[in-house]
Amino acid sequence: MGIEVRPADVFDDVAAVIGPKKPTSNVCFCLSYRLLSSKENVSLKEPARSARVRELCAQDPPPGVLAYDGDEPVGWAAVHPRADTSFAKNRRIPHVDELDVWSVWCFRVRPGHRKQGLVHHLLTGAVEFARERGAPAIEGYPVDNRGEKVDLTMAYVGTRAVFEAAGFEKASDTQSVLSGHPRVIMRLDLS
């Protein structure tokens, strides 16, 4: 079977890919860049954290896309209008212009499915997801690692090379650095 990317509107599938392993955890669950206050993000613990993500999965648009291998959810990409994320006010990642762009900012591939090109599928799926919902452009904020190895815990933002392979172009530098690598704004015009 091939990889299929679909909207992340099934909570159990989202939880299978990015949910916490321990019931007392307050791991990201991809809420860190949502429009939550820092205090709320830190204070949300299970089961409230899962409940918040369940609410997001029921909204239109849902919080991102999932990659499926058959019926098994194997990957995640967070994608949403930038205005509804912390990137709307992020001082380290500037706005290129006033266009109402969408952002794609987090990738996660389940162990056992890595190194199979799923991030490329997820980015393509995120682009189509945004395009189908009328986004004029989509941007990401990957590291510009220039081919150097990226710490796995910081690879969630993607790499410049992955975005370039999907047709994105560098729109701007940022003041953000992850794992010693500068982040750049990569943008794809969808008009």
UniProtKB/TrEMBL annotation:
Name the UniProt record assigns to this protein: GNAT family N-acetyltransferase
Phylogenetic lineage: Bacteria, Bacillati, Actinomycetota, Actinomycetes, Micrococcales
Domain N-acetyltransferase: 31-191
Matching InterPro entries: Acyl_CoA_acyltransferase, GNAT_dom
Superkingdom of this protein's organism: Bacteria
Annotated organism of origin: Agromyces soli
